Amino acid sequence: MRNTLLRPRALSRFGAAGALVAALLIGAPGTSQAAGTGPCDIYGSAGTPCVAAHSTTRALFGSYGGPLYQVRRASDGATTTITPLSAGGYANAAAQDSFCYGTSCVITVIYDQTSRHNDLTPAPAGGVGGADNPAPADALPVTAGGHAVYGVSFSGVMGYRDNSTNGIATGSQPEGMYMVTSGTHYNSGCCFDYGNAETNNLDNGNGHMDAVYFGTLCWFSPCNGSGPWVMADLENGLFQSDTGGSRDGSYTGNREPYVTALLKNNGTNYFALKDGNARSGGLTTHFSGALPTFRTGYSPMHLEGAIILGIGGDNSNSAIGSFFEGVMTSGVPSDAADNAVQANIVAVGYGDPSPVAAGTLNPGSTISLRATTSGYTDRYVRHQNDNAVTSVISSSSSALDKADGSWIVRRGLADPSCVSFESRNYPGDFLRHFDYQVYRQPMNGSAIFRADATFCPTTGRSGTGTSFASYNYPSRYLRHYNNTLYIASNGGSNAFDSATSWAPDVSWVVSSPWTA
């Protein structure tokens, strides 16, 4: 049966280990650090200034110290605005943690950092689907610039829009845009977009959109490999080239945890698509050439100037995805400016190790969990094909195995006195139980996910290490059984509830991570 039981518990239920976690949940914010030069400084100096700049992780101008985003908490409906730690710096996520402590928050505004005030708010109903929900504020914790910050995680029926913009391209005016997204959180739903769309939330025809898309919805063949791909949503089509399908046979998609996806369009006869690893290296151009002419309406374009994030122009809202930052420019940026912006993004260090000491249960620490059962002490909790399992990991294991066996400790999604475990190499994915088995899944913000992904530490049931009780099934603990992870009771009708070796099977050593 589906796990639906939620049981409140006293915070003292899990003793000293739980109290220690609770005491460390609201730490001092990281040292204030200015970024110096931001992407919008680069584009502005190149003659293609930003007319929209959105990010929940950092300032995109070196001098910007204004609001980044607003959150609203569930307990009383109050809101607060999150700003950079200093001008040009990284988001003060500790302010969000403090404001949302003991409850949940959603993101209600993503502020435009330009002077044009093109702020994004939850999208209203459109030609497809009703009004969109705001994204959960804590679903996508990440490190940037050595600071703990939050991206925006979309899990369907979520999206943002501004239909009354200033300075955004209309008609056949030229523009450029990029977003930093993730190659580990995507689907084939329509449409995970950031960019220019209709102002009435409807499909107004070919060429009325110009948005960068990232996902696995293949509109025109060929789409090489399994994706996800960067494409141009020009309305009534996701384009990889002037003929629709891919002209780059080597481009099979980008599954890096952090991806730069870029589109530029002169509005009359040219567009280009690029992507890159947002953590290292440069950009790769997958198409640069004519706008589509095999269908009418795209050359020239018929832009309307709304801005969308996470949805299609007609509010198609079945996509999932991740967003960390993005800008839109007036005019088509030069390749040199694009390259400089990519270098600036790489310098952020998205996903770099947390400054919190590794190998502890302090939120932000990166750990591995080693079994203590005799004969299995070389096995660690890892994810494999979305399942949580135990397998042998050693110094000679592959980099992938080591990454799969490393986890970031987060404050409990349902109870801040407990913990949740985020995948080290799949940002925003957490260990959660479903029908008693444990999986790696992206956080969707729901109450049941929060409960299923929260575990409360206590002294190891065998007297060794640490055991982790399920928040909503407190008599069940994380257990390995036949190399699969479950929440198991000490005796019961399920095979994985067997009392044999239960105590050592639910006791774990919290160790230094295989991947920092």
UniProtKB/TrEMBL annotation:
Leader sequence segment: 1-34
Domain Alpha-L-arabinofuranosidase B catalytic: 39-350
Disulphide bridges: C40-C50, C100-C105, C190-C191, C418-C456
GO molecular function: alpha-L-arabinofuranosidase activity
Alphabetical keyword list: Disulfide bond, Glycoprotein, Glycosidase, Hydrolase, Signal
GO biological-process terms attached to the record: arabinan metabolic process; L-arabinose metabolic process; pectin catabolic process
Organism superkingdom: Bacteria
Active site annotation, chain numbering: E235, D314
Domain Alpha-L-arabinofuranosidase B arabinose-binding: 369-510
Pfam families, sorted: AbfB (PF05270), ArabFuran-catal (PF09206)
Keyword ATP-binding (UniProt): no
InterPro entries, A to Z: A-L-arabinofuranosidase_B_cat, ABFB, AbfB_ABD, AbfB_ABD_sf, ConA-like_dom_sf
Protein family according to the UniProt entry: Belongs to the glycosyl hydrolase 54 family.
Protein name as annotated: Alpha-N-arabinofuranosidase
